[in-house]
From TrEMBL:
Pathway membership, UniProt: Carbohydrate degradation
Positions annotated to bind a divalent metal cation: H30, D32, H63, D172
PANTHER family, per the entry: RIBULOSE-5-PHOSPHATE-3-EPIMERASE (PTHR11749)
Cofactor note: Binds 1 divalent metal cation per subunit.
InterPro entries: Aldolase_TIM, Ribul_P_3_epim, Ribul_P_3_epim-like, RibuloseP-bd_barrel
Name this protein carries in UniProt: Ribulose-phosphate 3-epimerase
Amino acid sequence: MIAPSVLSADFLNLGRDVEMINESEAALFHVDVMDGRFVPNISFGLPVIKAIKKLAKKALDVHLMIVEPEKYFEDFKNAGADILSVHVEASVHLHRSLQSIKALGMKAGVAINPHTPVSALSEVIMDTDLVCMMSVNPGFGGQSFIPNTLNKIRELKKMITEKGASTLIEIDGGVTLENAATIIEAGADVLVAGNTVFSAADPKKMISDLHRLSK
Ligand code: DX5
Ligand code: ZN
């Protein structure tokens, strides 16, 4: 599955870019929320997500890069999030957070930074619908894929299989047409792509090309 990252869209033509994703082979909209505290960048928030939701024909996969995410679960639900991911590094009570997200009717995701070991997920994997594994340090689009992520994907896949979980593995950051096949081979189910899609001459075709590799 391909999840284009709205972070790299043209905000002056956001409606056009949302329509492009609607008509493409993308499975999800990946929506990055940054607060300038958990990560050294500020992106956009609830009003922009509400606007995207009005036009989007696919599920919104909202990646929260904010401190104290639990304060805003209901707000993100009301803005239109279908999947809501919180960072393990930003969650003091991760288990409770996952239950709260699900109780609001969303799928619950856990995001992990490059330095966080996969073992940090072992006690919550059964409660997690999606792991958003960062393959760059979060905060910016257009960075390079960290190669050690491939080992982490294999390890996570093994954990999911051994525990009999149905968690999806999403890889976020530095995905290109060149490395996508290797990432999928390691066990990824969802590829986020920002820069690769939106800097392409034909973004919709780029989504199809990535989608073809993911089948
Ligand atoms: C990074 C974000 C990513 C970003 C990916 O902090 O979480 O979702 O948009 O962008 P690319 O695909 O350009 O690395
Ligand atoms: Zn993201």
